[in-house]
Amino acid sequence: MTLAINGGPRVRSQDFPAWPQFDHTEEEALLRSLRQGQWWRVSGKENTAFESEYAHYHGAPFAVTVTNGTVALELALQAAGIQPGDEVIVPAFTFVSTSMACQRVGAIAVPADVRPDSYGIDPEAVRRKITDRTRAIIPVHLSGHFCDMTAVMAIAEAHGLVVIQDAAHANGARGEGGKRIGDWHTLACFSFQNFKLMTAGEGGLVLCPTEELRDRVYLYSNCGRPAGDRSYNHTVVGTNGRLNEFSAAVLRAQLARLAQQSERREANARLLSEVLAAESRVTVQGHTAHATQHPHYMYMLTLNPDDGRVPDRNRIVDCLIAEGIPAYRAYQALYRIPSFWLAPAPSTSQAQLIAECPVTEHIAAQGIWIHHRALLGSVEDTLDIARAITKVLG
Ligand SMILES: *Cc1c(COP(=O)(O)O)cnc(C)c1O
């Protein structure tokens, strides 16, 4: 069959469900926050309400809303006392903000390879990267699949390290024994940018395990000024990371829709993985026992060599897009991104990191991800994703 990219018929004649989704609840939230007459969090009610609703949903005692997920990571690192020159272990395969936030606070991001099944940070690789300057680990629940948190927490405890979960893909995710993100008692960062599983266009949040950490994250997000201060007593060097009231109001409506959307995505992702198991030219991201609820920010797969030939991943992504599939190239390995080598950078070489991270090398070169809105349709919609993959690879 002629490929759509060559002028043939598209597998998808209609688009998948649009993203973001909204209804009268977002509209009412926007009007409510507008009519509140107070549009910043300092005198409004929406941020405070959203923080307690979101924290409760994730099993955490406290949350602080912030302007975006990148700033959430920077503030969490500062609140945890990470200093310039400290080393922070991050997965080599993640969005750049995980490491860039470390650089922004003067810390050195140290990439560790990921696991071939879950694409989450490999505990063995983490152990190999620990030095006497290591202060923290940032595990990323990649695409929403929980990484091996039991192992990460054990390493952190043995070496006295801070753990900050980068949960930008993982709203509502659950790990072993059904544990929620807050149940691990660490700082955890979320993003609410337009693509994410909940969104107000932009936005972020830090879950906090203690009131002391909540106060510190707030302090850094409030230009270093403690809540309630009237005498301009700024006690730390912070920034303005406060989220406005309109965004928080929209996010309350988005949270109310999350569970139902996740259920649909999980069911469709299971179906898609069953069908693609018969397609020898791809390997889908595994689903290990470390993840009991996988909300699927991304549906991820890698291309396998075909008759010994290396697939042209970028061309295949372009072909999938032409067939009507919202497909994207996987992230680059952190150590292949130019900004990673600007100060502060680890005192190692790109060649060394390439040698240490074979799994990241493979996923970054041959990985494809499909946006979660494609999993919000019907069974037939979902089967179209498999049909398009088979057509393009054929
Ligand atoms: C989206 C994302 C972030 C950053 O969030 P922004 O709100 O875009 O700043 C951080 N980490 C990961 C893994 C992400 O995907």
TrEMBL record:
Q: Name one GO molecular function term.
A: transaminase activity
**InterPro entries from the xrefs?**
DegT/StrS_aminotransferase (IPR000653), PyrdxlP-dep_Trfase (IPR015424), PyrdxlP-dep_Trfase_major (IPR015421), PyrdxlP-dep_Trfase_small (IPR015422)
User: Transferase: present as a keyword of the record?
Assistant: yes
Asked if the keyword Iron belongs to this entry, the reply reads: no
| CDD domains, per database record | AHBA_syn
Q: Which keywords appear in this protein's UniProt record, sorted alphabetically? A: Aminotransferase, Pyridoxal phosphate, Transferase
Q: Which domain of life is it from?
A: Bacteria
Q: Which family does it belong to?
A: Belongs to the DegT/DnrJ/EryC1 family.
Among PANTHER family, the record links this protein to: DTDP-4-AMINO-4,6-DIDEOXYGALACTOSE TRANSAMINASE, TRANSAMINASE
Q: What is this protein called?
A: DegT/DnrJ/EryC1/StrS family aminotransferase
Look up and give the organism this protein is from. Roseateles amylovorans
Q: What is the lineage of its organism?
A: Bacteria, Pseudomonadati, Pseudomonadota, Betaproteobacteria, Burkholderiales
